[in-house]
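Table S2 (text version). Query chain:
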Amino acid sequence: MAKKIKLLSLLFLVTTILTSCLKSKEEAIVGNWEYQVLQNVENATEKQIWSFDAASNVKVTVTTADTSYSTKGTYIMSKKSMGLRGYYIQIKDLYVANANVSGFYKINKLKKDIFVINRIEKEDGKTDGAFLWSEFIKK
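Corresponding structure-token output:
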């Protein structure tokens, strides 16, 4: 009987720790993140701010020298999805500069000021041409 109580207590403790880790990741993503241009930096004329809220909405505001516009989608965070280890974010219904950036992303890094993701699957479930690396700095 004592073994069962210890085992149940240990199981409860592990579940609590794993759940709290995901919650802290969900809280860490909330806020405004500036997309970092990784190529042709000298010619970059566009600035993107990705805003994640606690209600699972994502808004991207794109600003150029001539104009500014916003686009919206939703996101869901998960841990160890599709049999894979780590943290993941699924972004739905999001288009930036007429490109569909929706899909299933692996979270490579999420710290208080750095957010790095790479898309491993498109929104339609296809992996061909799905790769999309994105880096952000907290604003």
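Notes on Table S2: The beta strands are 31-35, 47-52, 57-63, 68-79, 87-92, 95-96, 99-100, 103-110, 114-122, 132-138. DSSP finds one helix and ten strands in the chain.
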